[in-house]
Amino acid sequence: GCIYAAPAVTGDSVYIGSFDQYFYSLNRDTGSVRWRFKTSGIITSSPVIAGKNIYFGSHDGQLYALEASTGKPVWSFSVKGLVAAPPLVTPDRVYFGNVDPEEKSCFYCLDARTGQKLWDFPVGFGSMIGAAAWDGRTVYFGATDQRLYALEAATGRLQWKKRISGSLEQSLVIQDRVLYFGVLKFFYAIDCSGLR
Q1: Is the separation of the CB atoms in 148 and 179 below 8 Å?
Q2: Which residues of 75-99 are buried (b: 16+ CB within 10 A; e: fewer)?
Q3: What's the pTM value of the predicted model, to 2 decimals?
């Protein structure tokens, strides 16, 4: 199948999802398959390695946590629509958004160990396609509703939202309290306070 997502690499292993609905662990040197895990949808979400697990989403509406060494499922979390964006994984939480054709998309926070939902933030019309960013206290994400959001990471409380000039489908990068991202013909650098 086609490969849309970026891989994750650690040690001598490469991890990648495919349009054939499988998620693969490959030997970095030989390309041989160590294990593969079947989902029920194509995979465009780039995986994230954290500790002993690897996390990714699928168009089957699931966010998966697998043991990186074996491919054994640790947990999965189901949402409406599909999961196209890479998850954001912090030491104890996983943040991600979905794409809901019924325009009821949400941004979710899960317990990284158990997959239990801690909170969600309804976005509605906007879908999340790019990865979020985190500065230790606040989580930031963009959506196709032409808005950039800042939520309190612990509670999901909205701190601010900012309208931008297009559908935000790219991943965010944060450095020195500044968010960087591109939209259409524009490149943005926005202070994490949302004021400038």
Answers
A1: yes
A2: bbbebebbbbbbbbbeeebbbbbbb
A3: 0.93
For residue 55, CA distances in Å to 41, 74, 156, 165 come to 15, 10, 21, 31
Element (H, E) at 134: strand 133-134
Query: Could you read off the pLDDT of 16-52 as tens digits, one per residue?
Result: 999 999 999 999 999 999 999 999 999 999 999 999 9
Beta strands in 33-72 (DSSP E): 33-38, 48-50, 53-57, 62-67
Task: Say how far apart CA 163 and CA 149 lie, in whole Å.
Answer: 9
**Burial class of residue 160, CB neighbours in 10 A (0-12, 13-18, 19+):** middle
Which helix (H) or strand (E) segment holds residue 81: the answer is: none
